Amino acid sequence: MAGAALPGRLNWLIAKAGEIVDETDRVRSIVLDCPGWPGHLPGQHIDIRLTAEDGYQAQRSYSISAPADGEQVVITVELVDDGEVSPFLIEDLRVGDQIEIRGPIGGYFVWEPSRGGPLQLLGGGSGVAPLMAMLRERVRSGSDVPVRYLSSARSYDDLIFRQELESITSEAEEVEVLHALTRSQPPRWTGLTGRVNRVMLAQHVWPAFTRPLCYVCGPTGFVETVASTLVALGHQPGRIKTERFGPTS
Amino acid sequence: MDSERHLDGNALAGMLYDIFGREMTHECGCCAQCGATNQLGAARVYRAAGDVLRCPDCEHVLMVIVSDARGMRVSFESIHWLRVTTGTKK
Amino acid sequence: MTFITRGFRGRRETDVPTGRIPPGQYVTSDFPVLSAGPTPRIPLESWRFTLTDPLRSERSWTWSEFMELPRETVTVDIHCVTKWSKLDTTWEGVSLDTLLADVTDKTQRHVLFSSYGGYTTNLPIEDLTGGKAWIAINYDGQPLHPEHGGPARLLVPHLYFWKSAKWVRGATVSDSDRPGFWESYGYHNYGDPWREQRYQGD
Q1: Distance (Å) from the alpha carbon of A61 to chain C's nearest alpha carbon
Q2: Fold category of A113-244 in CATH
Q3: pLDDT by residue (tens digit) across A93-134?
Q4: Quick one: fold of A13-105?
Q5: Does A95 reach chain C within 8 Å, measured CB to CB?
Q6: pLDDT, tens digit, for every residue of C3-18?
Q7: Which residue of chain A is at minimal alpha-carbon distance from B40?
Q8: Domain locations in chain A as residue ranges
């Protein structure tokens, strides 16, 4: 049973793995049912703590990829080779298993419709996870904030949430989605090709004069390139929020 | 361009919550070295033997957190002030 | 009561002979890059190593002068306080015995190393002499990459690796001990991995 939250403490709660969705062959979304979950804002994350029988512990943070929905917390996890926690979540965790989580955490990399826009979301690899929480909230809430979502992935099969994004763009007004495939492209690919660079950003991101709120998330190299290029293109640094996942790309 | 191996302040959001007892990454701090004001989430975080927060404008060390078996030792190296907004924020 | 996670074991290597690695460590085959700050980029033509001994005048080497000093190749295990150990790493560098040969006053027992970028670390002089420490310029047969401390870093494998200061630029010999960066923030002043001296008070 989850303990009553002490003021000023983020308690560890016990969540049960519900639905498990294999998004790509390296990425999985896990729906966690968490009694006592207080809700969260799009962009926030959870900490997961795993404890082995001999007491050995490992802890990592994972972005929540869907907006608040009662006691449900969805995370989207990418397999890190030689990782400690992601191989367990991707290869071992089964429906019904319980794990310790705490959250929600993070007040900086957050977007809610009340903050307005236009909204520019830029994600590299699994960096799209917190951005998807933002986009799903924008759609669910009926907000009319215009959104441009640009993701970067190695290949078509590595695109996360591709089908849902297609249905969002066909149903929602003023949501544009673009994908850049960096290593290989399928025949008759009409999206973007190559690494996200200045030319691509100048052409496809909300222009600086529209003063968009920009959220950039993914591997350090991707975030570094995109954030510094946005500033070079005239965007105010204070309107660019970044969440670097670390050097693994 | 080689990327600098740093993370953003939100990488320490959980730890800062443990220290301050509330969410802190959206709050602003002033660097005692250069006077720049930034949200803590925008600080540069280097995670090595301990966790180092640096000013995103001048790179000076703002805070150092060393975690051991008992908890944390927190050094406030160059924070001139921190804003703490009151009200209901998650 | 700690909650145990079904099926979780963690990534720990089990086939290491006992006694080969210090307590609380695990063996890695990568070479993790950990840093307290941004990587300094030092062009070789501006690189200097300066030895400051208050009883004598300062002694400084340019890169080409440093390259003329005798060098050794050593293979050692290294142990990071963040719990990874890497076995049989090969380095080439100048022994601290060579650099400290003229420091003979027995009262000068402490050395503070300083690095480009501002990092510092302190060691007793007897932990630097007698074939225990080097200023390394090559790792694994290649010039030391800036990520790993190049052009030159201190290498003191018998202590936790935070003592092996990257981007080293100088050493000051003194009769008093001044804590360096991590030592001043709560890490152990000496740092012997075999006695698990990670934090102050250990």
Answers
A1: 16
A2: Rossmann fold (3.40.50)
A3: 999 999 999 999 999 999 999 999 999 999 999 999 999 999
A4: Elongation Factor Tu (Ef-tu); domain 3 (2.40.30)
A5: no
A6: 999 989 887 666 677 7
A7: A108
A8: 13-105, 113-244
